[in-house]
Amino acid sequence: MNVVNESPRRKELTRLAAQLFVQEGFDRTTVRMLAQEMGIKSGSLFHHFRDKQEILAAVIEEGTENALQIARSALASCDNTPQARLHAMARAHLETLLTDRNAHVVALYEWRRLDPDARDHLSHLRDAYEALWEQVIDEALAAGLIQGDRFLVSRFVMGALNWTVRWYDPEGPRKPEDLARELIGMITSPRAVPAAPSTIV
Amino acid sequence: MNVVNESPRRKELTRLAAQLFVQEGFDRTTVRMLAQEMGIKSGSLFHHFRDKQEILAAVIEEGTENALQIARSALASCDNTPQARLHAMARAHLETLLTDRNAHVVALYEWRRLDPDARDHLSHLRDAYEALWEQVIDEALAAGLIQGDRFLVSRFVMGALNWTVRWYDPEGPRKPEDLARELIGMITSPRAVPAAPSTIV
DNA sequence: GTCTATAGCGGGATAGAC
DNA sequence: GTCTATCCCGCTATAGAC
């Protein structure tokens, strides 16, 4: 639907909206706040978006597409072992959440604020992203790297990662990379902690 | 502060408020909706609570106190092994989130909507609850049951548990108990999955 | 303790000029 | 594409009768 609608202007406005939605939450962000952040008056906003809902949908679409793309390229360029792929996936996920700290966070935390139509439209994207996770988890299960139920393991891992948004301090000593390694270390057998992705090797 | 204010009436209203806050979110729940759920008119609500903020504070206080109490009694009555204690804690946590499905969920998901004064007042409670978790995690680390950084492990485990609210289906086949066992199994060494708390033993 | 009535505000969205 | 001006609505909270 938005393949046509992808003016650079709209992209930029979407980016700014994502920032505010993360800071304030969707419900508490007013169209006046959005307009001010964009350097225009609130009335002008509706030249770019039909209504406030459409802004949310644009942000979530952007955030999920971006996460999907980053995850795919991370998987494409890492070593082809279950450990490395698990680690690459966790790291990509955390970087879209904690470094960008924008659209993907909105996609996760404001999903419920989407109206049913938008949810229907965007659920494909979300499902594709989650399928990527389940695939990587499957490989790790098949390799005996982790144990348990595929569905539950995926949900637990994603939950642990998603919740980092609530406590992570970007000014602190730990990088997303460190968190990813620590999480993978926690759920895999003791000896199976992968090192950083072949930097010093 | 609310030790004085604990009329049974107010308790009941708080319980109903929690339910709506979970369903709709705090921001989207109007005082009119709250009043209707309570069987009174919106004006009458302010006889029981100074303002909407105070309702949120009451719910969160209730939810955290309840979670704390349930966790403590679960720890007091389980076997005195790191596995059993970890499992008891996870199970208690999930039951307050998924069975009750009310005040504790609000405490976790609407914390940011508290005004600064209420946050200050309630952070003691939240800290006490998290301290309980860190203690149990510490014991498991000391016993070699799990590995990693104490702070990160706690946060990851709590994240995995807290996120269940987003996907758990109460009508489904899995009980909170099952999720707890599966999570503990995932993060502990392969052989160390504890059984249900001494039912068949 | 609950009611009715309403003040007062700020929200989303529109119209039409430029 | 942005502005000004404004409509209309629903929200929180209050006042005073019962």
Notes on the protein architecture:
Two copies of one chain form a homodimer. Chain A has 201 residues and is mainly α. Chain A is elongated and about 55 Å long. Chain A is built from nine helices and no strands. In chain A, helix 2 packs across helix 3 and helix 4 runs antiparallel to helix 5. Chain A starts with 7 loop residues before the first helix and ends in a 14-residue tail after the last helix. Chain A has a domain of 136 residues: Orthogonal Bundle (Tetracycline Repressor, domain 2).
Write the layout of secondary structure elements.
Two copies of one chain form a homodimer.
Chain A lengths: L7 H17 L6 H8 L3 H7 L3 H26 L4 H19 L2 H7 L6 H27 L7 H18 L8 H12 L14
Helix pairs in contact in A: 1-2, 1-4, 2-3, 4-5, 4-6, 4-7, 5-7, 5-8, 5-9, 7-8
Chain A binds a DNA duplex (18 and 18 nucleotides) through helix 3.
Brief summary of the model shown:
Chain A is mostly helical and 201 residues long. Helix content of chain A is 70%, strand content 0%.
Note the main attributes of this structure.
homodimer, 201 residues, mainly alpha, Tetracycline Repressor, domain 2, 9 helices, 70% helix, disordered C terminus, DNA-binding
Taken in chain order, the helices and strands of chain A follow as HHHHHHHHH
Low-confidence stretches of chain A: 191-201
CATH topology of the domain at 52-187 in chain A: Tetracycline Repressor, domain 2
Q: What is the strand content of chain A?
A: under 5%
